[in-house]
Amino acid sequence: MSERTSERTSERTSERRFERRFEERFDRRSPRRTALSILVIALFVAVVSVGCERAHVAELPDGVLTLGEFQEAKTERRAIVLGDRSLTIEGENGSVSLAGGQPGQVALTFNVQARGDTRDDAREQLDNLMIEEVGDETSYTFDIRPHRSDLANVDVTGTVPSDAEVRLILRGGNVTLSNLNGVVNVLLENGSISYLGGSGSLTLSTRNGNVAADFYDLGVGDVAALSTTNGSVTLGVTDRSNANVNASTSSGDVRANGFEFGDPRLARRGASARFSAEIGAGGGAVNMKTQNGDLIFRRHSLVPPSTVVAPADTTAADTTAADTIDADTIDADTIDADTIDADTTSPASTDTVDTDSMNSTPPNVDTDTMNTTPTDTGDESVDADSAATSAAAISTPSDVAG
What we know:
This protein is mostly beta strands and about 400 residues long.
């Protein structure tokens, strides 16, 4: 018991440091942020006074307005040996889609887009965007820093160790995580979060967007905190799960969708609702909170990839006599290598939060041209060709019950 208490105290201390880091970077209410904001405003006024021009407004083919008429793009690939360290990704605008992969290995693809009023302006924004890497004995961080966050966007896809501690600090963009079973912390300012896995310690928080977490299992000692300011919060579990749920909304409904609870308690006052119940025999602790949105429960029958039973091989044995094969009839020229597209990675789009979208094969990470020169002086950099063999995608079943 004392070891468990000590472990939870350590986790809470780590979470508080994580939250302070988020506030330092994005929260304008923090003292440091306020001081920096005053300095930035003063510098902005000074720059404008000498004739700085703002980017022109342009309309995209889908009708969306944006800044800058021209766009430039590039792709960067990074691979490291993470080992037992935690992984942190900090960024401004862009989606993040990560799937559990081989132990100790991280393979990421950064799809960068930048805009400007001219090709040269867009190229300048692209060249000035930095993806910094800093690592030590306990953690490794990818820090995405654009020259102007309103003119640049970075989508991240890839694989990380399924049991790794993963932390994401982002300003805007949807987050999709699948088959991650270690400690997971996501703090997001604008965007939705979708999670599938078996983490025993999970924190998903956004200010503007939906949060959905589907667990393979929940039990004694497991802790999950799911929260948003504007959006719905969804919890999905299997029949194997045992947890105690506490949920609240300032303006919204509680939707059970046929879910059977133990000792359910609901309190309504105006548009607000507070709900508590047991799932199964109880045990794990799940907290769900939103100010403007619904609290949604659902059951599913998903299982971890490692427990999926492969279908039996029913291929009939080859009874063709060897003498009947005429080697001259095999035309090697019929295999056209040019028809093979080596890079099919595309930025993840997670505008809607649905576990079905998480059951597809994770992004195929091409590490042939991977950059392996991080600033960390450790030995975590690996040869890209060897990293490619460990970035195998994990697929999950798609039989989600609504």
